[in-house]
């Protein structure tokens, strides 16, 4: 154990921060899914995993990369703390008000949810029409999920499984939904769609998002998830990675088939996490003779909300900018994610890497405080949606994708229509 600590000092420090955060949440009886807690937990945990350096592409951060990463973390958390201490302090010890069950029209919510489900199933039909079956059960899943296959408008439909899970998931809980038959149907549909989405079009993003939505909804609409349970899963994960590191060292230099198979099995999931960080360091510190994505003057920041107008694609082509897959900044071909900090850096430069997290932390804190003070379905769904992306900012910048803007608008519109009155009860 001590040899592992001395060999991985960054991982050790970051892991201690994660453990300390969980201990604080447990002692103070705080909510794990508050904005600052989610940001610190996932940023430190994933960087701790990346610094295991199980792939030679994960080289130590340059000083500039550490400055950007730490600066963003401090900016986000300071905004959360400033709002909590300055504005929301008077509301912290009050029980949240729940939306009156009789005032939220769950039957209309169910109808709208079924409409979105039907659109999603049209997307599934599109896959079956092209592939002949669900992709997971086809002869070559990797071929059918490759960029070579164009599913057209069907892709927007079958990619919306997490939206279906969100809408039906919100209706699963007795604390807010008094209509028993809707709760029962929702408890069947929500997990079923999550499973179907994996069979139809295997995607880790869709799976994580669907499960993440259900977990966070459970935390706010059923029962706050004990931090000890989160700590238990964390301990299990750390043990798995310690085992992986030890096994890798044991087989290092062994050219047997067993060693190569074990190494591939261990490094594949690791790369999906670590490539976010090695790519970030790679693009923030380019070699003098290497061309990287040019500055976007803040224009590409709005690509997601304007995606379906066709303007962002035209601008990217005319300016020679990368598409959504960061073609010019991959350190290893095929591992192309960079996290939100690279997106902000190419849009607004270094100042944006500190200003954007601050503004995002402030906005999330406002929504979080209002949700806890007056727990309406609109606020719950929007907060669950947004806090998920905070947790996965190391993995993707959700605001750069038009589909997620559509989901946010649909959740807002559906929940607003179903709120037939503004009165609340405790």
Overview of this structure, please?
- It is a single chain.
- By secondary structure, the chain is mainly α.
- 65% of the residues lie in helices and 2% in strands.
- It is built from 16 helices and 3 strands.
- It has a 3-stranded mixed sheet with strand order 2-1-3.
- Mean pLDDT is 86; it is low at 248-253 and 422-426.
Please write out the topology.
Layout lengths: L1 H6 L1 H20 L6 H16 L12 H24 L10 E3 L6 H26 L9 H4 L9 H5 L2 H10 L9 H21 L3 H18 L5 H25 L5 H28 L26 H9 L20 H34 E2 L1 H15 L10 H17 L5 E2 L1
Parallel strand pairs: 1-2
Antiparallel strand pairs: 1-3
Helix pairs in contact: 2-3, 2-11, 3-4, 3-12, 4-14, 5-8, 5-16, 8-9, 8-10, 9-10, 10-15, 11-12, 14-15, 15-16
Structural class by sheet pairing and helices: mainly alpha
Shape: globular
The parts where pLDDT drops under 50 for at least 5 residues are 248-253, 422-426
Proportion in helices = 55-70%
Distance between the termini: 51 Å
User: What is the ordering of alpha helices and beta strands?
Assistant: HHHHEHHHHHHHHHHEHHE
Average pLDDT, all residues: 86
Strand elements, count: 3
Instruction: Tell me the fraction of residues in β-strands, as a range.
Output: under 5%
Count the helices. How many?
16
Major sheet: arrangement of strands: 2-1-3
Describe the main β-sheet briefly. 3 strands, mixed
- Kindly provide the radius of gyration, computed on alpha-carbon positions and rounded to a whole number of angstroms: 22 Å
